[in-house]
Amino acid sequence: MPTYPREVRIHGSLLAAAEKRLLIRIAAALPRWINSDHLTALGALAMLGAGVCYAMAPVWRGALILAVVMLALNWFGDSLDGTVARVRHHERPRYGFYVDHVLDAVGILFLLAGLVAGGFLHAVPAAAFLLSYYLLTIEIALATHALGTFRISYWKFGPTELRILLAAGTLQLLRSPWSTIAGHRVLLFDLGVSIGAAAVLATFIWTAVSNTRKLYRLEPLPSRPDGNRQAFTAIGTADAGGGALI
User: Fold this and answer.
1) Does the structure show a pLDDT above 50 at 2?
2) Which one of 9, 33, 77, 121 is at 20 to 30 Å from 172 when CA atoms are compared?
3) DSSP string of 206-238?
4) pLDDT digits over 101-158, tens only?
5) Dihedral angle at the C-alpha atoms of 105, 51, 115, 205, nearest 10 degrees?
6) In this structure, how many other beta carbons lie within 10 angstroms of the beta carbon of residue 215?
7) Domains of the chain by range and CATH?
8) What are phi and psi of 5, to 5 degrees?
9) Cα separation, 141 vs 150, whole angstroms
């Protein structure tokens, strides 16, 4: 039976410390009948609901307010499920890691699809962000397995900060979905998602190179001893002279 050591969580976002204290207090106050699976389901359904709200916004502007509520519920469920498990000593690290990442992959797809369906985002920047997001997610999973480090945030930004930016952009949609750059009108979310895609892709490249170098230092190629050199020389000489190798 293989063993799975607990990975080291790296979370250094702007709000990480304050968020951790708040989540522990909420987890301690939750009724016992609410468990981590309930919170995981709430977070996943809220993300799907946010995508539906964006798609509905052209016919009902109030759906944008509801989308912000869904983002808050997603934070509540997605951030609190692991904290509840740890506070109650009901950790399931492999199950939680796997399910959270699968649901995150599906949730971001529905979120971007909703923005595209609502006319707030074009398909090309949405696809670019989705591709870069999936590349970084794969890299995080591989680094967790190979290095034992599970990184949650980069450059002082994590999931909570990104939700706040998304909520702020959603409220701005109530005023106008457009932004003006150098005299040209572009969709606000086209601009934001394109910048986000470039940042996530750059982060993927940086972490992939950094972790490859780190693993190479941990597992360098063995130096070839002199005995091996002599053996290779002897084999080469015998082969050049027509001698049989076997």
Assistant:
1) no
2) 77
3) HHHHHHHHHHHHHSPPPPPPHHHHHHHHHHHHH
4) 999 999 999 999 999 999 999 999 999 999 999 999 999 999 999 999 999 999 999 9
5) -20
6) 13
7) 8-222 (1.20.120.1760)
8) -65, 150
9) 8
